[in-house]
Amino acid sequence: MGPIIVIAASAGGLAPLRQIIGGLPAGCSASVFIVWHIGRHPSIVPEMLSMTSRLRVSHGEDGEPFEGGRVYVAPPDKHMHLDHGVIRLDQGAKVHFTRPAADPLFMSAAEAYGERVVGIVLSGYGADGADGLATVKARGGLALVQKPEEAEQPAMPWAAIMADHPDASLPVAEIVARVAALVKG
Length: 185
Fold this sequence. Notes:
Blueprint: E1 4-9, H1 14-22, E2 31-36, H2 45-50, E3 56-59, E4 70-73, E5 79-82, E6 87-90, H3 102-113, E7 117-121, H4 130-138, E8 142-146, H5 155-163, E9 168-170, H6 172-183
Parallel strand pairs: 1-2, 1-7, 2-4, 3-4, 7-8, 8-9
Antiparallel strand pairs: 5-6
Helix pairs in contact: 1-6, 3-4, 4-5
């Protein structure tokens, strides 16, 4: 099994997210998990990402074994967790005033997969993803943050930087290149 890539995005994060997902090569072994702050509203994020992705994109389902070469998006109003090869969804308490939230995903990925995890925090309001990214780094994973000066809404990137110095704060184009190099082996 390849790398586990977990991504947090919210306001202003769709374009960077499409760049990152579009930069993943066909046949890559990474499993990608995305939390987009959608709340309870219907989500077309998988359809939007499918337009630029070479990988299959869908909402994650509770109890679904996950595979490499796939992109899973947290469904509306559910936190997504990783549990040793299986996606778990729940309607636990909101985290940073939102559900789905990135911190539960990032923390569960770091706990289960340690150094195989690549955590990425993109544009968005609030501080979601900051604690989870610090956990990814503490467990030996790679912690990347969109350069706040480039982010449409820099609060989430700044919160991640302030919570624990990530491995790198980069423009999205450099995140794309870094992730593509990691998944090519």
